[in-house]
Write a sequence for this structure.
């Protein structure tokens, strides 16, 4: 237990920390443990400290007693002041509450004042509106009374004033108050309008059934007598004058003008003024010699009648509208009918133009637009006449084409050319076939053999080589401007089916037909012409070339050939001749006629006819069997006839250069159009043939089913198709054109078969025999190329087919058939001793040998000899 002094120190340290918040620095005291015995000392110390504080407070209270009394007095005074302030606040609140009531009373009084003011204003406005309504009512009553008294003008004026006043009321007071007035105004207006309209119909009577018009200046009615002048002013006030004028204009137009201008066949009218105020249209039993003049005189009479009888106010609206209606009807019907279609009607047409000018000058100043329309028509008379001529001509071509091709007829082409006397065509021991056979075109273009030797085989496309394209160029389908360089003698070559006559001096026929004139002038691309014929004789190794004498002496050879055309070319030619004759007649009349400027345009119309023929003819020809071939024949026939007519016109017409465009442009275009139609049909047939041959699939596996049946079907289909085409074309084309056309298709067939067989890498013996049978099936088509029987030739010579002349690859095709069934020795012989080398290249023969024969010493030696021989 610590000593007593230590406990006291500990108690004092605790008191100091409580009272002052400080701690003792003595370590013993700071680390001492506060025990219960020390609490007694701590309690004593705290009691002593309490007593000291109490004594200090008592002493302080005793010393500051006077100050406390002052504080108490001030507190009481403050309480009294607070009470007084509260009382004043209550009084202020009471006063404020009293002012609010006064303000509410003031607002209420102000609102009542404004309301009374608005009521006074409304009442004043209402009084004003009621006065205005009363005024309107009085005005309407007066207007109604005026109407009952028959004073239309006064009634309409008062009605107009009432409507204006009502409109003002409506703007100020809305629509409710004016609804009743509007009903009264509407009722009164209807009555006035009805009365005015009735008076109008009494003054102006139009009887459409009897074609009579009566215009009076005063009504006879005792109820409402009115003059027309006053009535027109009334209608102006009612704002219906323009409407009534339009109705009157249409009525007079339909009653008088329309029958005058749109008269039916055999009916004629003329105007009669029965009374001073009446005009009537009556039938004319004896039509006048100059009906056009009578029409314009009648129209002027109608205008004069209306101008004299109608008031100026009505004429202001009626005149221009009536003149415009007359001009419209003249333009739409009468003047169109007065335009003649032939030159014989031009004198009368010139009178019509003069009368139109005179009538235009008679129109009033308010009809300036109508007058100008007539003047423009008269100034443009030449173009109007030409336009009608063009329209009628084009419609004629359309009508002709729409009727169809008509009945085909046979025509003959005759061409005369001068050839040398010593040409083989005149050889005594030569037949017509020899003449055509020995003629050669090799001077102008390389032969097929030469082309094949100069270049290797072209790449194949769709089974067709470039030789086929060369075949197309031989038909004259190149550009129209491509010139031919062949001499005139070569044009005399035709096929043996053509009749050949020799004339030493028959130039009249040539001049009449004009054959050859255009050839010398333009040398344009010709129609299909026969190709060179190569004789198939064992002792001939190359074609003969005729011996040509350099002597200028020669003989005329007339070539005749028939073909069929439709009925259209002659009709088109007739149209062209009629147009040119009209143009010639117009050209001869001279500038005195108003339509003389149309002469040059009329000369261009035949070209326009040919243009529309080219444009729409495929539609009508396409529906016919062999329509394209008919179109080809018609175009060439029409071109030849036009050339002959142009030649005649150049020497006999008034203007030798008038048909220059037709000759230089339109006719070549027509020829090219016909050739395009021919080429289009050929291309279509050629495509069909190729599609049929595609069924053979290149003749691969042609001995195995089902490929063998497909090959048989394809080859037989081609043969049947070519025969069908021949049957369709034979009634249309000329013999030479038919042979060339079928020959071209057969060239396509043989060329594709040759290429397909050459492409076969290996051909067995059964396949070779099968291919030979296919070739023989194609060979049966030779009967299509037999010449027509001739009375001056033995029967055996007439049966020689001309297939090789018209089928470029025919000889090659025949040699291919021989190769397929020949031995190596035979093939080598044909190459070295025969003419096989003229049709095949070395590589082609070698490829065929390698495909047909197995590899052996014999095959290698044969190939070596064949290569060495070249």
């Amino acid at each position: 237990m610590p000593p007593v002094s230590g406990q006291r120190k500990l108690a004092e340290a605790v008191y100091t920390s409580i009272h002052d918040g400080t701690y003792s620095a003595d370590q013993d005291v700071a680390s001492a443990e506060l025990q219960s015995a020390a609490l007694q000392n701590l309690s004593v110390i705290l009691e002593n400290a309490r007593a000291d504080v109490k004594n200090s407070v008592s002493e302080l209270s005793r010393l500051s007693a006077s100050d406390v009394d002052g504080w108490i007095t001030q507190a009481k005074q403050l309480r009294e002041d607070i009470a007084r302030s509260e009382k004043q606040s209550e009084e202020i609140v009471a006063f404020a509450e009293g002012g609010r009531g006064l303000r509410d009373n003031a607002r209420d009084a102000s609102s009542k004042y404004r309301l009374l003011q608005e009521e006074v204003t409304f009442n004043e406005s209402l009084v004003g509106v009621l006065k205005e309504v009363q005024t309107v009512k009085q005005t309407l009553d007066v207007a109604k009374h005026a109407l009952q008294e028959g004073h239309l003008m006064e009634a309409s004026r008062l009605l107009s004033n009432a409507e204006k006043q009502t409109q003002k009321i409506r703007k100020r007071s809305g629509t409710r108050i004016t609804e009743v007035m509007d009903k009264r105004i509407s009722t009164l207006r209807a009555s006035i309008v009805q009365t005015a309209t009735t008076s109008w119909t009494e003054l102006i009577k139009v009887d459409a059934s009897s074609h009579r018009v009566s215009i009076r200046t005063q009504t006879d009615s005792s109820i409402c007598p009115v003059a027309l002048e006053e009535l027109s002013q009334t209608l102006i006030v009612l704002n219906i004058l323009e409407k009534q004028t339009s109705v009157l204009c249409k009525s007079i137009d339909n009653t008088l003008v329309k029958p005058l201008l749109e008269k039916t066949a055999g009916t004629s009218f003329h105007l009669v003024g029965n009374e001073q105020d009446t005009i009537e249209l009556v039938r004319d039993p004896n039509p006048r010699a100059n009906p056009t003049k009578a029409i314009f005189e009648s129209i002027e009479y109608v205008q004069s009648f209306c101008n004299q009888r109608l008031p100026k106010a009505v004429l202001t609206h009626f005149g221009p509208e009536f003149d415009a209606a007359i001009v419209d009807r003249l333009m739409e019907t009468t003047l169109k009918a007065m335009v003649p279609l032939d030159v014989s009607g031009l004198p009368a047409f010139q009178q019509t133009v003069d009368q139109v000018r005179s009538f235009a000058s008679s129109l009033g100043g308010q009809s300036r637009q109508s007058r100008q329309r007539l003047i423009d028509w008269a100034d443009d008379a030449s173009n109007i006449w030409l336009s009608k001529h063009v329209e009628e001509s084009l419609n004629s071509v359309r009508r002709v084409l729409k009727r169809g091709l008509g009945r085909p007829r046979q025509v003959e082409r005759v061409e005369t050319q001068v050839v040398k006397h010593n040409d083989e065509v005149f050889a005594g021991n030569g037949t017509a076939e020899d003449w055509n056979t020995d003629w050669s075109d090799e001077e102008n273009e390389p032969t097929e053999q030469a082309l094949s030797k100069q270049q290797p085989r072209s790449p194949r496309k769709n089974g067709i080589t470039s030789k086929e394209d060369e075949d197309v160029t031989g038909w004259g389908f190149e550009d129209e401007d491509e010139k031919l360089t062949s001499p005139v003698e070569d044009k005399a070559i035709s096929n043996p089916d053509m009749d050949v006559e020799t004339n030493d001096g028959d130039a009249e026929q040539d001049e009449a037909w004009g054959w050859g004139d255009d050839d010398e002038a333009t040398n344009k691309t010709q129609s299909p012409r026969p190709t060179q014929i190569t004789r198939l004789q064992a002792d001939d190794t190359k074609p003969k070339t005729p011996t040509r004498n350099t002597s200028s002496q020669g003989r005329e050879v007339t070539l005749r050939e028939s073909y069929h055309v439709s009925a259209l070319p002659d009709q088109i030619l007739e149209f062209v001749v009629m147009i040119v004759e009209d143009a010639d007649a117009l050209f001869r009349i001279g500038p005195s006629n108003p339509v003389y400027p149309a002469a040059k345009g009329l000369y261009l119309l035949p070209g326009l006819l040919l243009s529309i023929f080219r444009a729409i003819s495929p539609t009508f020809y396409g529906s016919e069997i062999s329509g394209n071939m008919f179109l080809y024949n018609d175009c060439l026939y029409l071109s030849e006839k036009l050339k002959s007519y142009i030649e005649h016109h150049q020497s006999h017409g008034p203007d030798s250069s008038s048909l220059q465009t037709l000759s230089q442009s339109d006719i070549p275009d027509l020829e090219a159009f016909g050739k395009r139609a021919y080429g289009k049909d050929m291309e279509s047939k050629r495509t069909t043939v190729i599609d049929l041959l595609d069924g053979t699939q290149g003749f691969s596996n042609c001995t195995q089913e089902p490929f063998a049946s497909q090959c048989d079907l394809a080859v037989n289909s081609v043969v049947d198709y070519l025969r069908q085409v021949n049957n369709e074309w034979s009634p249309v084309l000329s013999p030479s054109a038919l042979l060339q056309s079928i020959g071209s298709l057969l060239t396509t067939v043989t060329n594709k078969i040759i290429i397909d067989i050459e492409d076969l890498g290996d051909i067995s013996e059964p396949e070779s025999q099968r291919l030979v049978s296919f070739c023989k099936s194609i060979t049966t088509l030779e009967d299509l190329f037999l010449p027509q029987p001739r009375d001056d030739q033995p029967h055996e010579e007439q049966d020689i087919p001309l297939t090789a002349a018209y089928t470029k690859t025919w000889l090659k095709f025949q040699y291919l058939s021989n190769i397929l069934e020949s031995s190596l020795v035979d093939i080598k012989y044909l190459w070295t001793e025969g003419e096989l080398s003229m049709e095949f290249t070395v590589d082609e023969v070698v490829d065929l040998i390698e495909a047909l024969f197995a590899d052996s010493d014999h095959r290698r030696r044969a190939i070596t000899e064949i290569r060495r021989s070249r």
